[in-house]
Design brief:
alpha/beta, disordered N terminus, Xyl_isomerase-like_TIM-brl
Length: 286
């Protein structure tokens, strides 16, 4: 499906009341039938200083799935794939997915595959392009070729390759939207999309329409809210303007299998992901 710059229905809802009080990290939370994931980039500073202690706190909140953001040369947060798998398994969690740099996809994917197999990781996600990496459509064609090549390698290991969006993929470049290139020049059965609900909404598009246009090709989501402020910054899930109930109602259309809470910026990341978890379980998932 090709996207044009036209008016899209924005998924917005009435903003909720201000946060009255943050829940305690020591509280025991009942895990719902739906396994909720968290993107560890949210707690990147905590993972850097105390990875095991931070993982214990994440498990205590109730999260059962993790998406990594610290892979480097065969390790994550200083642990091998087998070591990390053992640590999170003992806490009742799994490393479902991981963001790996464009350089890893281009030059270090074979080593990354070994790590993913050892870690039990099911998805490899191409996460971000710096400004100089996205100045031409030919660059995006190159990324599509890289994604396709890596997807072929990953298939034999039972691992799925995904592309994670921001807003710039939905901004015209030489008269075309880069997302069109990534979608049209890759096999929809081989290369999937991890849709960031915040960024696609910030770009002025409707995530539900994206699901319909790419049915079954969006197995993972980033779930994060847009603050009800002029700046429209990052907010805890359920405290902002995105209508998550409507979006989750279309999970079959999307083909969604996993979703991860993420908040790029927060004064207290652990409290933020706990509030997001609470709102998901009590207000959104039902």
């Amino acid at each position: 499906m090709t996207y044009k710059r036209r008016t899209f229905l924005k998924t917005t809802a009435v903003a909720s009341a201000a946060i009255a009080a943050m829940p305690s990290l020591m509280a025991s939370v009942v895990k719902p039938s739906t396994k909720i994931g968290v993107q560890l980039y949210t707690v990147r500073n905590e993972m850097s200083s105390d990875p095991k202690g931070t993982l214990e706190k994440i498990a205590r909140i109730g999260y059962q799935k993790l998406e990594g953001a610290g892979y480097d040369a065969g390790k994550i947060y200083g642990f091998s794939g087998k070591e990390f798998r053992s640590i999170v398994s003992d806490l009742g969690m799994e490393l479902t997915s991981g963001h790996m740099s464009s350089q890893v996809f281009a030059e270090g994917f074979d080593q990354a595959l070994e790590f993913m197999v050892d870690a039990g990781q099911q998805y490899a996600v191409f996460p971000w392009l710096s400004p100089e990496q996205r100045v031409s459509l030919d660059q995006y064609k190159g990324y599509a070729a890289t994604l396709s090549k890596c997807a072929e390698k990953a298939k034999s290991a039972g691992i799925t390759v995904c592309y994670h969006n921001h807003d710039f993929e939905f901004q015209e470049l030489d008269g075309e939207l880069p997302m069109n290139i990534l979608l049209s020049e890759t096999d929809p059965e081989m290369v999937k999309i991890e849709l960031d609900l915040y960024w696609i909404t910030r770009a002025g598009l409707d995530p539900i329409q994206f699901f319909k246009d790419n049915s079954g090709r969006v197995p993972m989501w980033h779930v994060k809210d847009i603050a009800n402020t002029p700046e429209r910054g990052f907010a805890e899930v359920g405290t902002g303007t995105i209508d998550f109930q409507s979006i989750f109602a279309e999970k079959k259309t999307s083909g969604m299998k996993h979703f991860f809470v993420e908040q790029d910026q927060s004064e207290n990341p652990l409290k933020s992901i706990e509030l997001s978890y609470k709102n998901l379980t009590e207000k959104i998932l039902g």
